């Protein structure tokens, strides 16, 4: 596959100078158009050692307008990153719409390294690559352009370059505290790289193999490829936007006729007042202890609450938070997004609040807004909310795989009970603020919401992240059910180590000893 | 001072129930008004051990509308926090306008602990408290309300409470991995607390001493105090805003008549083309090495560029970034703030990008915008930009004290040279995007800018953070001067350990051994 990168192409100094000026002008113009069309661009820079990835990135930074370009490297993991699901760091580096992020290696770096060092099998690598394909597709569907560069050169050229670098005082290779050993196993590394590239070279996010032997050729080719990619992405923009505007909000007409999962909830379930008090106290003590145990074991927890308006989310959440030490949790009420949030993929704002190891985040409403309010109100297009199910499943899978204990609640009440609560709220002074025009409006769309909820639960109640449906007409019953579910799940989860569901064990360098032995790849 | 907190006040269950309902209603209403008036509120919760700070915080979270309240504790420092100036973590927890942040201990926690443990002297503590007073004043002048609670109880009550806690499974005190020893030295702790409170009890941000023996009394008093503080802050809002609108942008009329520091720059300074090339290459190699040395020594660097439009900031920055490994630096072009940025103090957006230990941030324009463009264009009121000088000095002092190497450049060119460059830009295709209507407009305000720059340099060229004025008419000369300054400063700074200028040595628990011995306070 890499033959084409070893033919020895080069560009003369004069040609370079001439072409560079034209290219810069066009790149700057393309950048302005990116901003106008609100397209975010992710540039991934990977390749063999000594191919000059850092040089290329400096060159791009020189050519592009610095307003709107950020560069991210992932070699120096902080504990805030280490203690969260491994994609958190990539979400942190996502460009807002209209801007460019240049990523060193990005999400390809660790899988390649792990396979090369023998920390995972080919099959496990393939599984991870499948997830990468899904991840990239998700970003692209959200409007992003992903441009992936792989820099390659022959073994002889690489050896020469490394020799040159070791003489050059400016060389990173020389300065790096720990030299890595990829270059000493040229063929093995090439083999892993080929597997990765073949597997992830999709039409929507292709790899560009760049011959890196000649610096001028390399840089010009990168610049031109980037320019071409931006231009062709922008030429689609108009057609696509036209299509988008043709999509009408998808309001199923026969929704009210369906019998849903929610209809089967026994909303008459209740608990006597006295039992409630005793049980509540017991469960609060238990949750408090479990939160400390989780802290000491460095396991994090995500508690997610969705439900009918006035379904009792707030009340349940308060019973939980008041039993946990305030130092250990953060409650995130999900309201309208800020403009920084709007400039990113809809999952970005939730990634922001994923807890560090040992901590708890409670989401009062969540990423499911995409398939609930955004679907019903038509804020998300048909294609958008439809693909959100699998995006959400992948997201939750990542949380669980990283050891996060994820518990999802749907608090349900009957339409009559809702009416009663709305009226109550209007009568209790300190509850009045909770009821707005919107609530009454949403109420009229009850059948549509019901269908959306039903489909949501059906499509996103996975083995690793099941929904707990809570019969909410009796508030005490609902609270106890929520808290008992939390206690049971935490108790169970804290007994054992997190077990990734995907077979691919990500590990930082610190944990390499713990992982299975190299399988003789080098 | 604490006598009033030991009289044994209490509230009956019935009174509590009755008053609570009324209080909650009013707190919620006050919260809505906060949002309407865009006032950010910072609640600091401090006090003796076992006074129930966590309980109080849970209570406030129960009473307030969760949308708009966040709680922050500072006991579990991450490396991202440890590797930055110590106030970075507080800036991270600042509420946006209209919202409330509740901080456990906040910026008082460490000074109290350090003095109590004998890691600093009374004089050093006082110095730190002065800085706190300035810091709080700055936030208040920006519109914030700060409500500081100190929970206190008699030694007997505290002993009883600790006994109770050690029996209670829900107690944090019991669960905490390391029990601290404040309570075993009641009198010594009280003495430090008194010093701190007396020193920082200012009219604009008073301390509220709360008797913590009775939980109901404690919680009600906190709620009422908070309510009262918000109400009285809001009642000022209207008058204040009227005053603000009376302040006209301060455009000095005789500016053009003054001879300024800038006039004394010898703009004819230049460097021959050949010398430039040799010297540039040498300096780039040197900067590259110094960046790696700084990385290995975990010293961070802030390079800040201000200057006349078309003064050559971008060109200088590119010469620097292209010589540093792209993994080590981040360049921050300062443009219009996002809405999340607008919702905070103007320094917040710069704190966001302060580098971790070992890294470099380049600011292309900076916090000095406050006393330059915001002053001249009238975006900041008279009082606002006038007090910004000392706010900025304090900010930079903090950076330097934490070991950051800070280098500030002003790139200056003559008015004629600017005109020439503007015209050039319009002729070079890939430079055209750099010139806008604004640039021509700003040019007309040259004398006003000149005066603002002059005052800025005079007021903010401190011993620890001096300005380097760069004669910029000859681009090569300017670039060499910038790079040589960076090399010299870094070389010098990396030779020695950072020396705090303030006499107060902040230290995390990890470094306690390194600090001077306890002075027998316990």
From TrEMBL, chains A, B:
**Keyword Transferase among UniProt keywords:** yes
Protein name per the record: Polyphosphate:AMP phosphotransferase
Q: What keywords would UniProt list here?
A: Transferase
The protein's matches in NCBIfam families, at most eight in alphabetical order, are given as: poly_P_AMP_trns
Q: Which GO terms describe its biological process?
A: polyphosphate metabolic process
Question: What InterPro entries does its record include?
Answer: P-loop_NTPase (IPR027417), PolyP_AMP_Tfrase (IPR022489), PPK2-related (IPR022488)
Identify the residues that the record assigns to the Polyphosphate kinase-2-related domain, covering every copy: 11-233, 273-496
One GO molecular function term of this record is: polyphosphate:AMP phosphotransferase activity
Please, which domain of life does this record's source organism belong to? Bacteria
